[in-house]
Amino acid sequence: MALKSHGRKSITVSAKPRDLMEEQHLSGVWSAQVITLLPQAFPGILGESLTGKALRDGLWQLSTINLRDYGLGKHLNVDDTPAGGGAGMVLRPDVMGSAIDQAIAQSRGRTPLIYLSPRGRRFDQQMARNLSRADGMTLICGRFEGLDERVLEHYGVMEVSLGDFVMTGGELAAQAMIDATVRLLPGVLGNAESAVEESFSNGLLEHPQYTKPAEWRDRAIPDVLMSGHHGEIAKWRQMMSEAVTRARRPDLWSAARAGLLDDAVAGVHDAASLSAFLKRHGADEATGPALLALLETRGGDIALPNNPWQAAAQLFWLAMRP
Ligand SMILES: C[S@@+](CC[C@H](N)C(=O)[O-])C[C@H]1O[C@@H](n2cnc3c(N)ncnc32)[C@H](O)[C@@H]1O
């Protein structure tokens, strides 16, 4: 069987997903450790496609710690009934503590300790970006009713949620977090894929995407995308990104708009730069009515810069984004 060598290690092309998770530690490689009762669920989807290829190429590494190995007694128990009564079972602190001690002993550099939990801070792109700049992460997957609180306090564990819903265990959440983080590591995305222009990278949702055929069931691709005019295409994509964000996620839009406005009008300070700004932003016969409508509805509330040229640019920018 052909061997694939990438300097750090060699593996066969027929390697099974579990073979991708090596015992040995590759120094300097971003590393995810997962504490779980279901180690057989890994790498799962992470062994496929881009994340799987990157794992095979040694761009990141993955290991599991089986919580059952630290279980107590003949039956290797890991859980017990909730103090104070109630339904379900809770993961024991002594068992989880031993597994975490092992994870800490194996990790190096900055490796945040994270418990997947519906009570946690909501996972987002910024968190993925920060985690991709660490040396790795250790993820604790809960099961049953969750984990004894003292473990979280003792180790200063960060709780992270995938969203406002409850799953049966942390494994799917761990795989989602790892996927979103690993694809931001250098070299993981090929040329065809880019994290630069996609949703959230600039605080906005992504513009609509189209591909061939040019017409499908009487629906045509917008002309501008077929024009070959890169400047116009970039302008259209930016406007669509803003419109989609404004319509679907007012929370993201209000966070992004002040920054976008500042960036847009930054270079305007005299008649010539205002004129260039208006041209660049496609001012046309619709500009006048849009400005009037803006002034009628919000005129009194808008704080304007002192420089009158910049103030005009700001009014125009806001008028075009009702
Ligand atoms: C049934 S849940 C426990 C829920 C817990 N009793 C509560 O109400 O917060 C079992 C495990 O699934 C994982 N889990 C469930 N929903 C999650 C979510 N939205 N985000 C991250 N992890 C989640 C956690 O690891 C949790 O310990």
Automatic annotation (TrEMBL):
Q: What's any one GO cellular component for it?
A: cytosol
The main location class comes to cytoplasm
Entry keyword set: Cytoplasm, Methyltransferase, S-adenosyl-L-methionine, Transferase, tRNA processing
Q: Which InterPro entries match?
A: Alpha/beta_knot_MTases (IPR029028), tRNA_m1G_MeTrfase_C_sf (IPR023148), tRNA_m1G_MeTrfase_TrmD (IPR002649), tRNA_m1G_MTases_N (IPR029026), tRNA_MeTrfase_TRMD/TRM10 (IPR016009)
What GO MF terms are annotated? tRNA (guanine(37)-N1)-methyltransferase activity
Q: Name one Pfam family in it.
A: tRNA_m1G_MT
Where do transmembrane segments lie in this chain? none
UniProt function note: Specifically methylates guanosine-37 in various tRNAs.
Which HAMAP family does the record match to this protein? Answer: TrmD (MF_00605)
Task: Write the protein's name.
Answer: tRNA (guanine-N(1)-)-methyltransferase
Give the taxonomic lineage as stored in the record.
Answer: Bacteria, Pseudomonadati, Pseudomonadota, Alphaproteobacteria, Rhodobacterales
What gene codes for this chain? trmD
